[in-house]
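Team,

Forwarding the record for the chain on the shared tracking sheet. I've put the sequence and predicted structure together so nobody has to dig through attachments.
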Amino acid sequence: MSQPPGDGRTDLPRLPPGFRFGVSTAAYQVEGAAHEDGRGASVWDTFCAEPGRIVDGSSGAVACDHYHRYAEDVALMRGLGVGGYRLSVAWPRVQPDGSGRASAAGLAFYDRLVDELLGAGVQPMVTLFHWDLPQALQDRGGWLSRDTADRFAEYATLVGLKLGDRVEHWCPVNEPNVVTLLGHAVGLHAPGLRLMLDCLPVAHHLLLGHGRAVAALRATGATSVGSANSHAPVRAAGDDPADVAAAGLYDVLWNRLFADPMLVGRYPEGIGEQMPTSRAGDLEDDLAVIGAPLDFYGVNYYSPTRVADPASPLEPEGPFGDGMPVKVVRLEAEERTAMGWPVVPDGLRETLVGLRATYGERLPPVYVTESGCAQDDVVDASGRCHDPARVRYLDAHLRALAAAAEEGVDVRGCYTWSLLDNFEWAEGYTKRFGLVHVDFETQRRTPKTSYAWLRDVIAAQPAS
């Protein structure tokens, strides 16, 4: 496969020596092979089958066919020069029913993938849960049930025993706030429940599953276990006290509800009383598990959020509006992505510096586990795919990372979202986040201009 030329720029971002450049994907978004080698159904298979859930009526049943084409995709990583790949393991591929013995065929795929990565000089960062809960567990209550946290620990043990001797970093749960709020509060994502703030038990069980998986992975010999939490700076829509209060609540729900328990072992004020416990003392015991020290803290960043009181006359933008105690409204910006998200690179620096200011020495070294943008990318008549807006995005965000490092944040790396155009959840195949264009009919991969630009950035970094 021919590689696109770089854009010839010499003014490239410089990151600290030893900085890890990587790329990220998720199993349901790229693997396909939904009905092969005994894989069980996930909540996303069920969700996609429900009419009206996905913009284009599609699913991840085939996606990028990474299950069969992983060697080609690892070769793309080698050509890019990245040192790390953040992948996720599909729980229903390892345990089709969410419990019991592991599927030998399912584990064998990840065994082959990890060996292929290491052979290419790419270190794996493995996420255990990137939203594809086995449907069999959902049928028994899903993350509303405390039992799912127990099952998650068992699953973590199975994967850790198989892959732990070769995996550099582990992230138990990806974006528990998104699972809680988009999946269970407003129903935009699987499993599609609209519980509003009655979704809070989901948050607790996800956090408990995280903590139990941390312990399980370390018991198998894992040496670096962290997180992958989505963060967004929150702006009040105005000076009205109601808007300020709504912004404060949103900050708790999106940011602190998950970071506080992981990093300081307690919930924000007023939240713990709403969490499920079976007997007195359970909450304190659970928080001790959830708050086990981490080896790194993973941050997913895309954009800030502007929030108004629900009674505000401003129109809602996105799913947080009707029925919720907060309303997300439009944040003005000079540039927006194809998702409609404002491009605010300094928000990444603000997020990282803010985490350091809030949590101090309790904040371990940081990796940006996701950052990227969707653009309307097409392959032209010459066979090339130019995406200058993504180059601008990556350039500005890497410079924001460098600025955070200069301000004292221990930033160790950045995993760009995403290596490939893929199945973008409720947006189906209508949004492209990849450094590599994928023709979903032919599965042809075409590296974009941004791929070449990032390759040049990586090659230009100082030696560690």
